[in-house]
Design goal:
globular; alpha+beta; 184 residues; 5 helices; 65% helix
Amino acid sequence: MDWLRAAFAIVFTLGLFIISLLVHELGHTVAVWGMMGWDKVKVISAGSVSFFRHGKLRLGILPTWGYVLYAEDEATPEMRRIIAVAGPMASLMLAGVFSLLHIVIQAKGWSEAMYAMALANYAICGFNLIPIPPLDGWKVVETYLPSLGILLTRESRARLYQWGTIIVVVGSCLYVAIVGPYHR
């Protein structure tokens, strides 16, 4: 019976992480939709290894990555900044909801799960604001580069995003390996 509870806890936690990534990406989506229109949103993806696809939405089983593809070339630098920050702000709001649930829920295991998800969403918010490509913080910095005389070609931007992704993945793995996944 304990294995069944453990399996449920793992699946439930993965589900909450996917929901957290989805809320973050929906923050970006709402900003695009509000400023540019729904037709400018191309793909909303949360999680890796897609198991669900419907219209523009893609959900994965592994809570590792998320993104929104939109008509970025049609957005002004100011729009791109707002769109970039909208995801972390959605994560911050969800962290507040999980924090409130942690306080309200009396059952020890459930309360701890809500606390962990609050921390995870605060981390998603803060981590995404780091100015490393392809994170949201970089997308804000990137909008200021032309005013500094730095023009990125599509190729150099793609290369930056590839190397940035490698740095983020390797750095995250090293952090978890050294510090551990959860500390209170």
